[in-house]
Each structure stands twice: as C-alpha cells, then as structure tokens.
Amino acid sequence: MPAPPAYALVATDLDGTLLRGDDSVSERSRAALARATAAGARHLVVTGRPAPRVKPLLASLGITGLAVCGQGAQLYDAGADRLLASVTLDRETAEVALGKIEAEVGEVYAAVDQDGVDGLTLIEPGYRMPHPTLPAHRVQRRDELWHKPITKVLLRHPVLSDDALAAAARGVVGCLATVTMSGPGTVELQPRGITKATGLALAAEHLGLDRSAVLAFGDMPNDIPMFRWAAWGVAMADAHPELKAVADEVTVSNEDDGVAVVLERLFG
Fold this sequence. Notes:
The protein is an alpha/beta fold. Helix content is 31%, strand content 24%. The strands form 2 sheets. An 8-stranded mixed beta sheet has the order 5-4-3-2-1-12-13-14. Strands 8-7-6-9-11-10 form a 6-stranded mixed beta sheet. The longest helix is centred in the middle third of the chain and has 15 residues, at 91-105.
C-alpha cells in the first residue's frame, strides 16, 4: 500500500468510528487527535447527528471551530453556537416520500430532526431511538412531526432489515430525497443531493483547504460520498461492507481505537 501524503484536515464520523459503544472518546484517541492538531492538521467532526445533539461532545473535545452535522445538511460553528449553512427537507416532500415508501413496504415508524441549533428530535408512536442516550420528544400523531422546519426524517421498519429498507426507499423516492443508512436502525431521508461529501466540501472551502488534503474516517454507507470526495478514506474493521469496498484502508474497530492507530502512524 502506498504511503498516504500529509493531511491538513482529519474528518471523523462519530458513531461507530471515533466514539466507542458507550459514546465516549478514549484517551488514546484524544491524544492522537491532539498530536495531529499539534502537527498543523485540523480535526473536523462529520456526523449524521444534528447540531443540538453534538454540542456536548464538541465541548468535551475542546472543539470551537466547525462541525458538519445532519448528514451534511448543517455547517455548525461551535464557538459561535450558530449555523453557517443549513438545508432543510421540504415537509410536503417528506410526507409524499413517506407515503411512497409505505405503499412499497407497509407501515414504517418515523422521526425527524428539527432545524436550528436548538432543534428537537421528534418521534412518532412506535419509533424506537437507535441511540437511547440521545434525547427525543414523542408526539402523538405523525402530522406533529412537520410543525417546524426539519433537516431529515429517520425511518424504522418492524420487520425489514436496514439494508432492505434503504434499498426499497431508494427505489421509490430517488427523485425526492437522498436516502442514507448511518447505523443500526438508522435509515434516513435528507434533502436531495445533500450528503456528508457536500457538507465536508463546504467546510473545507471555509477553511481554505483542498480535497487533496482531507483524510476521512467512517463505518457506514452514509460515509461513502465522503470517502469518494476525500483524498484518503479509512474504514473501521467492523464497517459496513459497502463502505469497505470503497475505502483506501481498513483499520481496527472503534472499540480498539482505529482512528488513533492511523493518526499515530501518520502524525507520530
């Protein structure tokens, strides 16, 4: 394997990548990120979580700069606690997309992430949060999900696997929204054309950096656009096979500090 070049931007996914299963960042990973930043690189979180659900983690990591949130729909300035850019999913489009999906696979359970730095995660009856540590507010009826602008819809099916649900959704809503799978129990609809790659590209532009300077880490199919855009993509050992297929490198698992292993080699 050829040695990767030096990188000025280290883009890390959170769940299943930088974070361990208990939502913590290990001391080894913190030290490796500190070593990279001391060498002149910037660390950028690129996550499917919306900005309000990322604030505490960014604070714990001492990040006061940019973060890409909501699968690329939000560019968040942690120091100023404001969104530099935000793309919302049209609520009528979201309802039509859900109708098409249910016509194809039967009833699904839905949740939404509201736009804004203080937006809520709303869940309808039957929806179960894949990350029980993340706060959510239950509503009584689906139409209550659309009361405020949203950045994405999260879907669960009572029987179908995530892969099957994502494939079915892509087949019927491809012209309405972008369908992603970002983790166990997490199939999502986001604004058409919005991906982690579009958010990462916008962040790099703000930082004055070219894609040739970007090193990306991830574990799920929602990281595929980011890997294709970045200069070098590193998948975790237990990453989804679709992501491994496009990765430039596979490291050890998040539980074994896979991000740190690579950063120690590159910035040691």
